[in-house]
Amino acid sequence: MQDYGQSKMWTTVVGPGTVSFYWKVSSEQDYDFLIFYIDNSFRDAISGDVAWELKTFDVPSGIHKLTWMYWKDGYWSGGADQGWVDSVQFLPDSDGDGLPESWETQYFGNTTSQNGTGDYDADGYDNLTEFISGTNPTVAELRVKIASPRKSSLLP
Ligand SMILES: [Ca+2]
Ligand SMILES: [Ca+2]
Ligand SMILES: [Ca+2]
Ligand SMILES: [Ca+2]
Questions:
Q1: Is 4 exposed, middle or buried (0-12, 13-18, 19+ CB in 10 A)?
Q2: Which of 36, 56, 87, 136 is the most buried (most CB within 10 A)?
């Protein structure tokens, strides 16, 4: 690829939902960037030598264009001078509660009975927290609290 210029890839999705992907870049630090846009609005950029990173963004309702662009300034090149994007995944969330449809269906059998603030298994973690941390929203996570021993009871 020539100095000065850009290369792009894009896809369109129907929101609401969540897009996630891995990206990395090897470029001239602070001059050449790998950039992510939703429609024409800037969301994030990396520059220099960045190892694979997982990124997650909310996509609002409607049709949206997701764009990844490698952008170069007019002067030097650095590193391998390219960006990589991998494992792009869009999880639709038609009711906009932050829980992907596939996740709601997997655990609750439908998308309507639960939302992000519900706590189906009453373990103190709401469903959105369980989704983000990868725990099971239908099985209570064990919460262990070990109190420090009271000196008074040991040494009366
Ligand atoms: Ca949902
Ligand atoms: Ca729901
Ligand atoms: Ca819970
Ligand atoms: Ca749980």
A1: exposed
A2: 36
| Residue labelled with tokens 């001059």 | 31
- Beta strands (DSSP E) in the chain are 5-26, 33-38, 41-47, 49-72, 82-92
CA distance 1 to 57: 29
Q: What global pTM score does this model have?
A: 0.72
Q: Give 14 Cα–ligand 4 centroid separation in angstroms.
A: 30
CA–centroid distance, residue 109 to ligand 3 (Å) = 16
CATH 2.60.120.200 fits domain 5-92: yes
Query: In this structure, which ligand is nearest to the CA of 93?
Result: 1
* Residue 10: both structure tokens together: 């894009």
User: Which is higher by pLDDT, 151 or 72?
Assistant: 72
Enumerate the domain spans of the chain.
Answer: 5-92, 93-148
